[in-house]
Predict the structure.
Amino acid sequence: MIRKDKHIWSEKAKSLAKDLHNEISLDNYNWHEFRGNKQRRSAELIISAISQLINDGDEIEIENLLNQAILWIREEIKDKGCKSH
């Protein structure tokens, strides 16, 4: 992959993307609450794609994240739940 011009994104843009990613990503504390929420799951995938795009991530991975987000929005995939419950 050809590296892109690192100067097209300001440090503020990178910081804001990171902060938003940290804010909406599912974690150990909110997993059970939001694991099946299509808006939350798709938003998490979309901000992951944006973060990777801003940080010169792999274009195929970015596309995969966006495609996965679309599947959540269309409800073509759903969380299967925890096997331990």
